[in-house]
Write a structure and sequence with these properties.
Elements (H helix, E strand, L loop, with lengths): L7 E4 L4 H12 L5 E2 L11 H10 L4 E4 L7 H6 L1 H21 L4 E5 L28 H21 L2 E7 L1 E3 L12 H15 L3 E5 L5 E6 H13 L2 H6 L7 E4 L4 E3 H12 L4 E5 L8 E2 L4 H5 L8 H18 L14 H7 L17
Parallel strand pairs: 1-2, 1-3, 3-4, 4-5, 5-9, 6-8, 7-11, 8-12
Antiparallel strand pairs: 8-10
Helix pairs in contact: 1-7, 2-4, 4-5, 6-9, 9-11
Length: 358
């Protein structure tokens, strides 16, 4: 079968990662793409997922659907984070196997690693220490996704792969005031402070924590690259029970320096104040992406350039009034569950025509 005629299902196509993967596939010439909105498909419902795979002849799956969020969201909704993520993973991976899907890529998170893992973090550090308490339920769910893929590969001979991205940012992110990750949260707060004339902006933590960031279109490019390599190549840099690959930029920055950089991009000249009563999370998190490098991939978008492009996208959405749907920090879950766990609607930005930095 010609690779461009393959039926490809992108689960979570409206989210930050899924939308970037969809853009990357289209740029490379893929047209036989399958997407489903939450109204069409609840991935936490096994019967609905089974019906989809039975109805569609799916050759490849990019499993980017997840319930995600920052420290506040993880602390506030631990039950939802662990339940919905494990349900999505189990349903999609199992039905992909049942219906003979050729290839699947599961997207996890760097939070799977121990809080005090060696730096930079190698794939082999998985399950060798205690997790960061603030996002433990989410991390456990993502670890389960890796192990489901590995177990099906070992027992059934499937070709299901897993990648663990570092902290992501870019077009299509969630800008909720409390449930978002650090970069979109900073962009929103500093943008609003600039326009309100606020003299200072409060930022969680000490500012000393160090993080690695990757532009989401770089991640999408890496995902397609990982899916394109032969089975022999993939196995040459992985092991049957350590089968995931890290995807990072290879560069880290303190939260304080990041906040200053975002302030420069936004044009905010006020004071940055750090709230020492708030948690920092993991003190340092830099991935060792050497295995992926051996497969011939490197990140290309610098943090400064990526932040400029992200803010440009944010402004375009603001001007277009493109605010729709609940924050992706709490998606995708059924409407019934959203009603239980999300007390009030929130705002997110959606981007359909993003530029890609060069």
């Amino acid at each position: 079968m010609n690779q461009f005629s393959q039926r490809i299902f992108v689960a979570g196509h409206t989210g930050l990662v899924g939308s970037a993967i969809l853009r990357a596939l289209r740029r490379q010439g893929y047209t036989n793409l399958l997407t489903c909105s939450r109204a069409q498909l609840d991935l936490t419902d096994q019967a609905q997922v089974r019906s989809l795979f039975k109805r569609e002849s799916i050759d490849v799956v990019y499993l980017a659907a997840a319930t995600v969020g920052g420290i506040h969201a993880n602390n506030s909704y631990p039950a939802e984070f662990i339940y919905s993520n494990m349900a999505i993973e189990a349903n999609v991976i199992h039905e992909a196997w049942r219906h003979g899907t050729q290839k699947l890529l599961f997207l996890g998170s760097s939070c799977i690693y121990p809080r005090l893992a060696p730096q930079p973090i190698p794939e082999a550090a998985l399950l060798h220490g205690a997790l960061e308490p603030t996002n433990e339920p989410y991390a456990i769910a993502k670890i389960a996704g890796i192990k489901i893929c590995e177990s099906y590969n070992r027992q059934y001979g499937t070709r299901f792969r897993s990648v663990m991205p570092t902290n992501l940012y870019g077009p299509g992110d969630n800008y909720h005031a409390e449930n978002s990750h650090v970069i979109p949260a900073l962009i929103r707060r500093l943008h609003e402070a600039k326009h309100s004339g606020a003299g200072e902006v409060l930022i969680w933590g000490t500012g000393e924590a160090r993080r690695e960031f990757l532009y989401v279109d770089d991640l999408a490019d890496a995902c397609l690259h990982v899916m394109s390599v032969s089975e022999d190549c993939y196995r040459s840099v992985t092991k049957p029970m350590v089968s995931h690959l890290n995807i990072g930029s290879g560069e880290e920055i303190t939260i304080a320096m990041l906040a200053q950089l975002v302030a420069q991009v936004v044009g905010y000249s006020g004071r940055l104040v750090f709230d020492l009563t708030r948690p920092d999370g993991t003190p340092r998190k830099l991935l060792d992406s050497a295995s992926l490098g051996k497969l011939g991939w490197r990140a290309s978008v610098t943090l400064a350039r990526g932040l400029q492009e992200t803010y440009h996208s944010f402004l375009r959405a603001e001007q277009a009034g493109s605010r729709q749907q609940p924050a992706r920090a709490l998606d995708p879950v059924s409407r019934r569950l959203r009603g239980q766990f999300q007390p009030a609607p929130s705002l997110a930005h959606a981007y359909a025509d993003m530029r890609v930095p060069y």
